[in-house]
Fold:
Amino acid sequence: MWKKLGLGIKALMLVGILLFVNIIASYIHGYVDLTEENRFTLTQATRNLLRSTNNVVLVHVLLEGDFPAGFKRLQQSTKEILDQFASESSYIEYVFEDPNAGSVEEINTRRKELTKEGLIPTNLMVRTGSENKEQIIFPYAILSLGERKVAVNLLESSAELNQDENLANSISLLEYKLAHGLQNLQTKEFKNILITTGHGELDKDQTQSLFGNLDLFYNVGYVNLDSVPVLKKEIDLVIMAKPSLAFSEKNKFTLDQYIMNGGKVIFLIDRLAMSLDSLNTRKEYIPEPLELNLEDLLFRYGFRIEPAFVLDLECSRIPQVIGSQGGKPQIELFPWYYHPLLSGYGDHPIVQNIDRVNSEFPSYIDTLKTKTGVRHTILITSSQYSRYQLSPTKIDFEILHYKPDPSKFNKPHLPVAVLGEGIFPSLYENRVDESMKSNLANLQLDFKNMSKPTSVLVVADGDIAKNLVDKETGKFSPLGYSKWERKAFNGNKDFLLNSVDYMINPDNVLAARSKEFRIRLLDRVKAENEKMKWQLINIGLPIFLLIITGLINHYIRKKKFIKLPAI
Structure:
C-alpha cells in the first residue's frame, strides 16, 4: 500500500505527522529524568504545594537579555523549573522580562523601583568583542498573587566559591527558592515566634536583621519570661539569643512545660564570657564560664555545651598593627582562630548548600542519650583543621605571631549546632514543688513529664544571630557580617531561617534544598596524560569507520552487480 503512494503524498503525510506531534507536544509537557542526582524531578512536597494552588500565580523573571554562558544556564534552568511547575499546576504562569530594555530614562526609573522594593542589583562583566562591559542585572523572580508579591533571589553569591560553583549552587536551589516563595505567597495564617529578653540577651538593635528576616514570613515579637506565667500553645517557636544572666527555676519551669506541650525552642548559648572587646583593653584575658543555670535543662534533653573554645584554621580575620609609616599605623588582617567559619555537616536540608557560618568564640556540644530516645542530628561543625581549648585558659594576641602547626589542629568537625527531635523528658519529673503545682492549677493546666513530639535546637554560639550596629547612623549590618573583611557570610541567615522553617512548618518544601547540581569538571592531570589517546579516538576513529564502511559498501555493490559467466 505504502509503495503505491506517490512521493508527494508520502511527503505530505510525513509533514502532517510532524505537525500533529508538535501540536500535541506544545500542550503536553513531559520529560524523563536520566540524571544521576534526579536534577529535573520535583520533590513530593513541591508537587503537593503546586497541586494545592487554586489561584493564578504570575512569575516575572528578570533574566531576559544577553548574558555569558553561565548566566544563560541559570536562565534556561529557571525556565525548565517553571515549566515543571506549570506541568503540575495550570495556575502557574510566567514571563521573562529584561529590566535593561528601553531608553536610559526608563531603565533608571525601573532600577529605582526595583531597588525600592528591596531587590539588590548585581554587577555582571559581559565581554563584547574585545572589551569587557559592566552590566547591572536583577537576578530575581517576582511571584504575584492578586495584590501580594514575593521577590525571590535566584543567584547565590558565596564569597568562598568561584562563579561556576555559585551558579551551580544557584541552579540546585531553584526549586526550593521558587517553591518557598510560592508557599509564603499563599500563606494565610502566619506562625508566631517570640525572641526572649530579660536575661542579658542580644538587644533589639543587635537582632534587627534576624527580626526583619523573620518578620517577612512570621508574626515576630519579644517576650520577657519574668512577665508571663506560661508560654501559650499559640506560640510556635521561642528563640533565646545569647543570654548572659542566670535563669530562675520559675523561668526554666515555664520553658520546660512549653516544650512538654509541643513548643519548639532555639537556644543560642555562649558557654564562656568572651569578646574581642575584652582583649582591646588588656594584653590578655581569662574568660569565665557563664552561669546561666540552663545546664541541667539542656542535659536532660541530651545536650552538653562544653566549657571550651573551638579554634579553627578556617576562620575570619581581624586587624593588627604591624608597624608605622609616616606616623601612621600599618594595619594588616590576620586569621583569628577563635572566630571559626563553620560548615554544614551531612545532608540535612537545613544546612544543605549553605554558605559558611561566621562565629565568634564558639564552644562545642556533646550529645547524650535520653530516657525517651531523643534523636540528635549534628548540623554545623568546625572544619577538619580544628581543635578545642578547655577553660580556664588565657587568651591573647600572641597566637598571631607564630605560624600555626596544622598537626595540632587535630580535632576535626567539632559539633557547634545540634538538633534534637522526638519526645523529651521533663527536667521537673518528680521535682514539682507546691508553688509550681499552685501556679499550674491557677492556669488550669496539668503538669507533663513527657513532651509531645517536638524539636529543640542548641547552638554553642550566640553571636551567629547578632548584627552589628553603626552607633552614628543607626544602620545595622546583615547577619554574619565581618566588619574588617567587609563581607557578609550568608550562612548565618540561611542557617537560622532554614532552622525556623524546618521546625515550625512540618509540610514545608525544605527538602528541595537537598537537591544537588554537580559540576563535572575534567581531571586535568588525567586529561593531559591521555591527550594523544583521545585525539586519536576523536579524529582517527571516525575516519577509520568511514573507510571501513566505504570498503564494505564497495564489496557489496561489486558482489551484487558482478556479471555472471554464460552457461
Residues 77 and 171 are 7 Å apart (CA to CA).
